[in-house]
Amino acid sequence: MSEQDQSQLNIEISEEIAEGQYANLAIITHSHAEFVLDFVNVMPGTPKSRVKSRIILTPQHAKRLMKALKENLEKFEHANGFIKDLEEVQMPMHFGGPTPQA
Prior knowledge:
The chain has a domain at 18-81. It is 31% helix and 19% strand. The protein has helices at residues 3-7, 15-19, 59-80, and strands at residues 25-30, 35-40, 51-57. A three-stranded antiparallel beta sheet has the order 1-2-3. A hairpin with a 4-residue loop joins strand 1 (25-30) and strand 2.
């Protein structure tokens, strides 16, 4: 067995995890030792939302994640065009549900 074969990482994923969780809000907090990323699915008109996933990272891994996201966003935009920030996109306030009335 070569050195390269020994250093390969075999990563498995269960069907449940592979389905993923949708999140439209990320809340990031940190201490001196860790970063906590809470991913939430906020539904309009619902007064309460629940954290769907929590990821805890060391500061070093948080920085590596930031760099990896930046690189991947640049690759995505190069292939697909500029991604508009949410402030630039006009979102309908009813999200397919009934239109709110005053």
